[in-house]
Design goal:
This protein is α/β, with parallel strands linked by helices. It has helices at 40-47, 70-75, 93-100, 107-120, 122-126, 137-149, 167-182, 194-200, 218-223, 225-231; strands spanning 2-11, 14-24, 29-33, 55-60, 63-64, 78-81, 155-159, 186-190, 203-208, 211-217.
């Protein structure tokens, strides 16, 4: 479904992603694990069209995303839940969800989508008229995910969904991710909470200073001594 082939991404003249290749098959949940500054979020931004690779290409089905604008990539069904949530804090929960559905012109489809979001995140229905900036951090993360789901994504990019959340809220977010996976939504998950990410993923890639150093079945990587030492607290 998604194939990244030897991409190099630079900030100015400095390469931060150095010839990365990876794949995500339809229906898979693939985790991308790495320390701060490894280049994980840069890869997601490049898939989304917010950055351009200096080398290599990104294919989604038969479309070359690396030559498309960010708006066309969303139209193709690739949607990102950004790091830090980036909700519209002065707008209501409902207005944020409406913006997520800006491509949905059919009223019946919109209602179907918002009902699905309320099924995933019942708290958002209770907070519908509330200003988004007054939500708790966990509720804001749910809103960011709900906003992305309003566009009926074929492929969901999740950038650090547990960042800054309490253990209880982190558990809830990963529970939703498991549910989305069971519904057949294809996902690429960037996450510093390596254990939680590997627990829920089918496969994973380990990224270190812009290079993929290890990849494989997620459960095998949990047992890998090098992964345990570096990311799972030994």
């Amino acid at each position: 479904m998604l194939k990244i082939d030897d991409i190099v991404v630079k900030y100015d003249t400095i390469p931060v992603v150095k010839g990365v290749s990876m794949e995500v098959e339809e229906g898979e949940l693939v985790a991308l694990i790495g320390a701060n500054g490894a280049g994980k979020s840069t890869i997601l931004k490049t898939i989304s069209g917010l950055m351009r690779p200096a080398q290599g290409k990104i294919m989604f089905n038969d479309m070359e995303l690396s030559k498309m604008g960010a708006n066309d990539i969303v139209k193709a069904g690739v949607v990102q839940v950004p790091e830090g949530r980036q909700i519209f804090s002065k707008m209501t929960v409902y207005e944020n969800l409406r913006l997520g559905a800006f491509l949905r012109k059919d009223r019946a489809e919109f209602q179907k989508n918002i009902d699905y979001v309320f099924e995933m995140f019942p708290i958002l229905k209770e907070r519908l008229k509330q200003q988004a900036g007054t939500l708790s951090g966990g509720e804001q993360q749910m809103l960011a995910m709900g906003r992305a789901l309003m566009s009926c994504p074929k492929f969901l990019l999740l950038d650090e969904p547990s960042m800054g959340l309490s253990p209880i809220m982190t558990e809830q977010v990963f529970s939703v991710i498991k549910t989305l996976k069971s519904h057949g939504i294809t996902m690429l998950l960037v996450e510093q909470n390596a254990f939680e990410a590997l627990e829920v993923a089918d496969r994973a890639y380990i990224l270190e200073t812009g290079n993929i150093t290890l990849s494989g079945n997620a459960q095998d990587l949990i047992k890998n001594p090098a992964v345990k030492e570096a990311y799972l607290g030994g």
